[in-house]
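Protein modeling request. Please complete all fields; requests missing the sequence field cannot be processed.
Requester role: graduate student
Desired output: 3D structure, token encoding
Chains: 1
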Amino acid sequence: MLSSKLNPITVEEERHLTKKYLFNMIGQLTAGRKEVKISFVTDNAPIQAKNDFFESIKNEKNICLFDTVQPNPRVSDIMKMFNDRSFKNSEIVIGIGGGSVLDSAKALAMLATNGGSLEQYLSNTPERKITKKNLPLILIPTTAGTGSEVTKVGVYTSESGRKYTLGSPLMHAHKAILIQDFILHAPSPLVASTGLDALDHALESIWNKNANEETLELSRQATIEVLENLKNMYDHCNQIRNGKPVNEDDYSACKNMLHASCKAGMAFNLTGTAAGHSLSFVLSETWHVPHGTACAFTLNGVYKLAIENPKTRKNLALISSHFHKGEKDEKKLVALLQEDISNLYTYLKQPKTFKDLGIDMTVDKIDDNFERSFDDPKMHNQLPVATKMNIYPILEELC
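Delivered output (399 residues):
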């Protein structure tokens, strides 16, 4: 797992990332053995740097590629990969992609040593528990948002359609590598959605019963860095996709967002997430709302609830003081930060009502749809304590 002091490789090194660099990383995990069977896990996203890398290794021996990962990875799809004959006897798993890819790679590496079906590890009362360390695992994100490369958890859609978080220290990657080239050409809607996921991770680690001084420091840093860099990355990636040559500012924006996402991942890896993520699972399960957008959808309302907690107010005011120097009043600082976040949502063209999401939701339907979110352990991390009495009004305002 990466330490909180990130030491990124240089832009020049990233521009010339090669097969040799990654295989050196592999050598560290396999004691330099040459004949090692490697399974790569990815998706079909058109990322030039990633595609160039896979083109460069296609003729290598002992390599198999699984490139059909879909958003909100399903148990059935992961088990299809796991049971594929080409995966058998894999000695190292490498995930290159967004959160769904990295989570799928985690599941494969875990199942290879623990056995059974992924379905058996899910639910609040699973049939099986993780008892053995996963296969050597390298994770390389192609989005700046999930932080999955440094967390012990994965999110999986069960056979029933419910999404579950599966977590164990034995699922940690052995190495996480941040590569700016892999996120430079991301489409702007994806940049917005995943970037807001990172913001939500950071904030949910603040208004969290499991927060401590280490996680709060990481969360404050991550929140500041997202607010400073997400808009720039959104603009730069949009311009690059429209033909603008890549320059140092583009790399800087992407690098900073990768670091922010990673720090937020380190924080919620220790605290877990909270109410916003519990509600987001319902949106994704029922209406297939992209994860980051689903998390961001209720953040404004959860923010209003969270500031009832004095410790949360203090930490949010500290963040706000970074942007509003000279302001000393805690209440004003907290309100200004909420305004900053709201303005960012507007700039990123995020949905603000159920209607914007294409969902026909009325007040009388809320309990039928969202009651199950209170069975999610993440909901119980929320400060103040989350109840239907204080959560449902958040949803009612979005109707």
